Amino acid sequence: MSQETEHVKCLIIGSGPAGYTAAIYAARADMNPVMYQGLQPGGQLTITTEVENYPGYPEGTQGPEMMEDFRKQAIRFGTDVRFGLATAVEFNGSKHKVTVDGDKELTADTVIISTGASAKWLGIESEKKLNGFGVSACAVCDGFFYKGQEVAIVGGGDTACEEASYLAKLCKKVTMLVRRDEFRASKAMQHRVMNTENIEILWNTETDEILGNNAVEAVRVKNRVTGEKTEIPITGFFVAIGHKPNTDIFKGQLDMDDTGYLQVTPGSTKTNINGVFACGDAADKIYRQAVTAAGTGCMAALDAERYLAEAGLH
Predict the structure, then answer these.
(1) What's the CA gap between 277 and 113, in Å, rounded?
(2) What is the pTM of this model?
(3) How far is Cα 282 from Cα 308, in angstroms, rounded to an integer?
(4) Is 233 helix (H, G, I), strand (E, B) or coil?
(5) What is the CATH number for 152?
(6) Cβ neighbours around 55 below 10 Å, total
(7) What per-residue confidence (pLDDT) applies to 234?
(8) What is the pLDDT of residue 246?
(9) Which residue range(s) make up the domain with 46?
(10) Burial label, 149 (beta-carbon count in 10 A; 0-12, 13-18, 19+)
(11) Residue 110 contacts residue 10 (beta carbons within 8 Å)
(12) Which of 6, 71, 139, 159 has the greatest number of beta carbons closer than 10 A?
């Protein structure tokens, strides 16, 4: 290593609502937290435009502005917020070792993981271009903006069915685009969707292109059996093909489920390694909301503070 190893009391890996909230609590508790923001400072909310469901913003706010507010508040109380990506970890003994950007090494008494999750996308150019302008990966976050309109949703699992049901309550019509000739969702979710009058299901269907210049105007779909292409006029396009937690660097060290979500002791943010805590979407595949992420960030800082006190380090 080119430099001496730095030691910190509380290291936060990742930003977003969970990481910044953990930082605010840790800083106020004199834990002198150091945060590395990761590849996407501010997390998924930085690619969200309107946020209207976070308490305390009666007129709503923009996702990037909200994360900037969180960041400033964390800094105000003394968090050392740094650019950088954790690239390797070694969790053993009482000092946890973390490598940042491949060459800087730190040790920490406590580590709070808030690396979040990333929505899986279809990978087509128009999806990227219109992201935030009619294309969304969160119906609960953005469905409200399409009240009384016609939308499409891609996916065939429980999440897609749940989000389609949610959208059906708000929208005039919901078209589900399902790649296969059947759902992967549970029977209960399938029944709910199939018995909802304003949901139309197109089987064996994939997205060819999302159409529109500055906002979504239609989707061109292709039938996988016949090859026939059709255009469906819509104003909102929702992708519900799953999320991938950003937890690859913890494989083999922290307990996780078969899809990579970190597992914590119920009712806490404790992982299977003493002094290492997980919060936000890296450990939550059920709710995935900014407000729930912030709540677990608070829990992680309080859990870390108790751990330090019990270990005689605080």
Answers:
(1) 6
(2) 0.81
(3) 23
(4) strand
(5) 3.50.50.60
(6) 8
(7) 98
(8) 95
(9) 6-118+243-310
(10) middle
(11) yes
(12) 139
Q: Tell which of 192, 216, 239 closes a domain.
A: 239
The alpha carbon of residue 128 and the mean position of all alpha carbons in its chain are separated, in whole angstroms, by: 17
Q: Is residue 286 within a helix (H) or strand (E), and if so which, with residue range?
A: none
Q: Does 131 share its domain with 194? A: yes
Q: Which amino acid is present at 301? A: A
Is the same domain home to 112 and 158? no
Per the CB < 8 A criterion, the answer to whether 291 and 53 are in contact is yes
Which one-letter DSSP state was computed for residue 53? S
Closest CA to 313 of 16, 4, 47, 30: 30
Bridge partners (DSSP) of residue 231 are 220
Closest CA to 277 of 85, 31, 6: 31
Report the DSSP pairing between strands 34-36 and 6-13: parallel
- Joined together, the tokens standing for residue 74 give 């964390």
Q: Tokens at residue 44, please?
A: 């998924």
Q: Does residue 210 sit in the same domain as residue 162?
A: yes
Q: In angstroms, rounded to a whole number, what is the distance separating the alpha carbons of residues 7 and 96?
A: 9
Report d(CA 118, CA 217) in Å as an integer: 26
What are the mean pLDDT values of the chain's consecutive 10-residue runs (314 residues total)? 78 96 98 93 76 91 93 97 96 88 94 94 94 92 94 94 94 97 92 96 97 97 97 97 93 96 97 97 92 97 97 83
Strands (E), 198-281: 199-202, 205-211, 218-223, 229-233, 236-239, 243-245, 276-278
36 lies in the same domain as 49: yes
Q: Give 204: exposed, middle or buried? Use CB within 10 Å, 0-12, 13-18, 19+.
A: middle
State the amino acid at position 251 in one-letter form. Answer: K
Q: CA triplet 272, 282, 271: central angle to 5 degrees?
A: 10
* CA geometry: angle 60, 124, 40, nearest 5 deg: 50
Does 184 map to a domain?
Answer: yes
Tokens of 253: 């060290």
Residues forming the active site: 138, 141-142
